[in-house]
């Protein structure tokens, strides 16, 4: 039997085509997630041949040696049909095993490619030999995640009797709020049929974590209900589970299980087993929400024993009208407020919603939980705001931030629970909450202006800001106890790369010549976070260590000019005396104007209250002189001036 071979990658001297003395038969595992990184073993024979055997003829060696000096090289090609996806180095473990790691699979999943998507052939070359095809293809799959479990609590008695099953719903969409495409759903259903669904049950409770081991079970496909949000499956709970909380992980190849959050409270795919002494009852229908006492009778209702330790919280279904802000920075930490109301259905019609502030709802035990519908984002705690209109929480960091483009949006589904995470309700605000990557700042010009305000400040960004955002620039006092904070709106240029605002007025303390204000940009009105890795700060010594600041200065006051009469030919030396003649980020400039024509010249500072310049050539007549102490590119000319005849 002759193996399928490809010629060597570079062998111009080969004259005889022959098969190398090795074969690749099986893979373990034979599938893996499309993100790559799966370590697998190629099983076969003859992987340890060296090419030095006396039984191999010179013609045979010449045919399959491409690099005779590269004696320890093993290469694996990933091919889709006749297209090479990637070539990677592999490790020869022994004569029958080669270890390799998969590369990411990025082929688009379309309805027309659903059946063949993910299947790649592997071609192996040992020490420069022709490539030999492995008999078993490698199959990629989209990693599914569990977004629904029922029930989330099972009785240990049922577990011990081997009579406990948990139904699941799997999806590959970004969140359950994102409808899967027909191709995604079809592919997931196909993967569930073609691969064994391997589940791991991991103990999460401290009481069982030390005494229990990780258990492996296989899942079962349930009859398809056609729902677009996922595909149904189930697992049988092993009978050896003790009382406690357990988390579930799924991997088709029984190897690449997605990691679990370090905090057990943030694990979404989890269930608990109850002590057999626990009494499980189904609550009756309540007409009114509130706190209810619970009493238990074990003698057919003759005597009742009240549960004094806790009250039963009865609530209507929480709904969310809107979230504020609607956008949060991807590094997390955004103070998110959810406008909550409660509603309940009745047989005779819809009961009007009751706003949170009009209800008797309270959360004394801190049981509010807000879930961000992503495998990589944890569930966070929430609480009722002081105004009793919102559930408040702090957004977690989005672990995909490194893959974001600056200012790119990612919508995120939300769920809320008011019983500590037992039951979660989907929230459908008018505008869904979205993460955005922080804007990339390049520079802003000018970097200084008079304390009277009115300077046009231009902020340059590296990536266009979408029109979705209403940008504001905040000027905040650099001093520790400085209370000056001004938040001003900005306008965007047509290409979204330049943001412009007018600097606000700034208060200078008596005797203070200038003040530094920290400049901060926000896209959502809450998070003043930007990417400043490529920011170009002002190089003036005044801005040393304050590269992201704006300099407010007191406008110069001119008191005297040394020469009242100047030559029309220019070059006369002019000494100007006044107060506030400072260099605030650039050279001092002097403007000579007759009302029609204005000429600018640079000036040098003689001492604290004098500057010197050379008058430019000018037409005869009377003009005015103005001093500008903020460098080039600035148009603020609001200083005191003196007049003189220019003859």
Automatic annotation (TrEMBL):
SUPFAM superfamilies: E set domains (SSF81296). Residues 26-128 form the IPT/TIG domain. InterPro entries: Ig-like_fold (IPR013783), Ig_E-set (IPR014756), IPT_dom (IPR002909). This is IPT/TIG domain-containing protein. It comes from the Eukaryota.
């Amino acid at each position: 039997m002759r193996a399928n071979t490809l010629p060597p990658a570079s062998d111009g001297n080969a004259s005889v085509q022959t098969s190398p003395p090795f074969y690749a038969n099986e893979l373990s595992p034979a599938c893996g997630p499309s993100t790559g990184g799966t370590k697998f073993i190629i099983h076969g024979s003859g992987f340890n041949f060296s090419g030095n055997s006396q039984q191999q003829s010179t013609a045979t060696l010449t045919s399959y040696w491409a690099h005779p000096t590269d004696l320890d090289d093993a290469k694996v090609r990933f091919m889709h049909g006749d297209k090479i996806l990637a070539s990677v180095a592999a490790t020869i473990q022994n004569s029958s095993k080669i270890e390799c790691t998969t590369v990411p699979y990025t082929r688009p999943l379309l309805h027309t490619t659903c059946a063949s998507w993910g299947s790649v052939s592997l071609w192996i070359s040992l020490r420069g030999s022709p490539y030999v095809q492995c008999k078993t293809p490698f199959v990629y799959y989209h990693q599914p995640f569990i977004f629904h479990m029922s029930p989330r609590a099972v009785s240990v008695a049922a577990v011990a009797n081997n009579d406990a099953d948990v139904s699941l719903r799997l999806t590959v969409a970004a969140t359950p709020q994102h409808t899967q495409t027909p191709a995604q759903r079809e592919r997931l259903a196909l993967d569930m049929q073609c691969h064994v669904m391997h589940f791991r049950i991991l103990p999460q409770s401290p009481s069982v974590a030390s005494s229990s081991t990780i258990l492996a079970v296989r899942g079962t496909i349930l009859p398809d209900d056609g729902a677009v949000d996922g595909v149904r499956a189930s697992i049988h709970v092993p009978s050896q589970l003790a009382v406690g909380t357990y988390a579930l992980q799924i991997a088709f190849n029984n190897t690449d299980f997605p990691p679990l959050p370090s905090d057990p409270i943030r694990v979404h795919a989890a269930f608990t087993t109850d002590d057999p002494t626990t009494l499980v009852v189904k609550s009756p229908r309540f007409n009114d929400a509130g706190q209810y006492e619970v009493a238990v009778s074990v003698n057919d209702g003759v005597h009742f024993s009240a549960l004094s330790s806790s009250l039963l919280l009865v609530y209507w279904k929480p709904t969310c009208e809107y979230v504020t802000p609607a956008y949060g920075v991807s590094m997390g930490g955004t103070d998110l407020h959810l406008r909550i109301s409660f509603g309940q259905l009745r047989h005779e019609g819809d009961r009007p919603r009751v706003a949170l502030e009009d209800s008797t709802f309270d959360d004394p035990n801190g049981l509010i939980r807000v879930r961000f519908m992503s495998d990589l984002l944890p569930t966070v705690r929430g609480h009722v705001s002081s105004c009793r209109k919102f559930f408040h929480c702090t957004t977690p960091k989005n672990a995909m931030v490194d893959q974001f483009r600056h200012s790119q949006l990612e919508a995120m589904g939300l769920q809320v629970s008011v019983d500590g995470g037992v039951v979660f309700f989907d929230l459908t605000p008018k505008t869904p909450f979205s993460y955005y990557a922080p804007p990339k700042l390049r520079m802003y010009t000018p970097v200084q202006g008079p304390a009277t305000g009115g300077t046009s400040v231009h902020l340059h960004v590296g990536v266009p800001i979408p029109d979705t955002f209403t940008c504001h620039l905040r000027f905040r006092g650099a001093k520790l106890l400085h209370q000056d904070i001004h938040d001003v709106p900005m306008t965007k240029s047509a290409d979204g790369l330049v943001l412009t605002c007018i600097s606000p007025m700034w208060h200078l303390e008596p005797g203070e010549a200038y003040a530094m204000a920290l400049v901060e940009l926000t896209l959502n009105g809450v998070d003043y976070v930007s990417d400043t890795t490529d920011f170009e700060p002002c190089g003036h010594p005044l801005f040393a260590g304050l590269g992201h600041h704006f300099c407010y200065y007191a406008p110069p006051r001119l008191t005297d000019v040394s020469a009242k009469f100047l030559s029309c030919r220019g070059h006369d030396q002019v000494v100007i005396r006044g107060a506030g003649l400072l260099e605030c980020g650039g050279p001092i400039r002097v403007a000579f104007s007759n009302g029609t024509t204005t000429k600018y010249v640079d000036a040098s500072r003689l001492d604290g209250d004098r500057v010197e310049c050379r008058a430019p050539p000018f037409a005869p007549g009377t003009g005015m002189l103005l001093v500008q102490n903020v460098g080039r590119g600035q148009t603020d000319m609001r200083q005191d001036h003196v007049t003189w005849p220019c003859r």
